[in-house]
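Example with several molecule types.
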Amino acid sequence: MTENLVDGRALDRPGGAARRTSRWPRWLADAVSPLMLTPTLLILSVFVYGFVLWSIVISFTSSKLIPKYDFVGLEQYIALWSMDRWYVAIGNLAIFSILFIGLSVSLGLILAIFLDQKIRGENAIRSIYLYPMAISFIVTGTAWKWILNPGLGIEKLVRGWGWTDFSFDWLVNPSMAIYTLVIAAVWQSSGFAMAIFLAGLRGVDGEVVKAAKIDGAGTWLTYRAIVIPMLRPVFLTVFVVLTYQAVRSFDLVISLTGAGPGFASDLPATFMYQMAFSRNRMSLSAASAVMIFMTVAAIMVPYIYSELRREVKNER
Amino acid sequence: MSADMALSPRRSSSRGNIGRTLGRIFIYGILILFALYYLMPLFVMIVTSLKSMAEIRGGNLIALPQSPTFEPWRVAWMEACVGVECPGIRGFYANTFFMVVPAVAISTILGAINGFALTKFAFRGHRLIFGLIMFGCFTPYQAILIPMATVLGKLGLSGHLWGLVLIHVVYGLPFTTLYFRNYYVSIPQDLVKAARVDGAGFFRTFWYIMLPISGPIAIVSVIWQFTNIWNDFLFGASFTYGANAPIMVALNNIVNTSTGERPYNVQMAAAILAALPTLVVYILAGRYFVRGLVAGSVKG
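Resulting structure tokens for the full complex:
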């Protein structure tokens, strides 16, 4: 990178052009950075922070189809927390998050460690593991909906192999539908975990590993006792990003199960959407959105804070 | 580090060699098995899209097509039904391109300027500002959906693709800013200082010093934005309807239109067509895509 700057195009261009003295007064030149950031900050303070506040305000009203501002206190939250459907949604979210994160992390870590063994064709294999990340959840849902089709999908395939009483109807089975979401989501996102872990493994100091080898530690012991503990920050990152993804899961649910059968595979995000756009219960929907927001904020704010703190520390 | 982790320590005994070989076979076996697992859905989609419905009913999921036909692809492109109308997905394809191009361009340019302002001409409190912008990456969109619907209605952009352009620029900005900021942070400050001593101001430094070396991160940003916007469903479903819908909304509608027998072959062809642009980008520039993924979550 630096070499590129020294003898590359970067430096020979400004030579003539930049030597002129700036026409701007000093105070304006100093203010230009904050000035340039102002549009973005304004946009984000309206569209992110302002809108979140607005949603919170609406959650304290009795708005149905259009916002109205009659404050009814915690009425919507009480209604929300006494709805069976909401309990189904958060119960599903718990099942989904635990399985999705657990499976993606384990699969990602195992594949990353295996890929880190001087594998021939590593690039090709890595690309195959990661391509689902480039695909929309809607496409993923469409594909798995077909694969899991109770009449013509896997069930028929396995029956054709001779197990004639094999049955696989999770997609239409209310108590199993949530697990089909796990199957498809893990397929889509475990490659992501693999990529982050692999980047982390490549960043581990080779000297430490060499020292362990000299002390007679085998490969797997080296990983278990030395390398994996060093990956703590990477685990945190993977965990945070996957949790965020799980909490806001929406597209996949709509395309794979449609939150059904009935509302058996509802998640908070689909609950919120339904209430806002098909049931005309705007303030109830806002209350559920606030719940989602709080959950994400509780995870993200400390994470972002610690990342920035680490940066400050590294600068010193 | 991989160089130091080549399986077990070298041993000269033949038992060690056999163990080593078996270990290698095991590792390759697992890696290939999972490669097949990740490829399976794509394979199923492709073979299904090349079969007639009769063959789909008669055969199984992974059987190769006996008499391959591109008819489902033609139907998906020109005649696939969304509700009662059957316009195919081509119009929605055009919609999405129309929306993606300005949204990607605007958010990337603004992100570059922001990243520069946050690092090379830094000011007091720049880190707090960056933190506030970064949180924008992780806003759950559910929390802004209702106000957004109200505002788009007021602006007269409800149901219009320009509304989606606005949305994707706004919610893409935190990501593009993050990318450029973390890239510029690693570039020696001396370079900017030198230009400043020579009298170059904000814009000249940005234009002549930073932009020429921003190629890689600009590609990362463009690919990230393109993939995300192309693949968006939530905003498209919330704020557009009918012929204005972007591709993923159209695909979902095609798949869930249930009039008569479900044409699974057409559905699969439509799904592959919908996934094709981002897949092509991934195949051509996967390196940058991965960098975006990693940079978006692990900073620096």
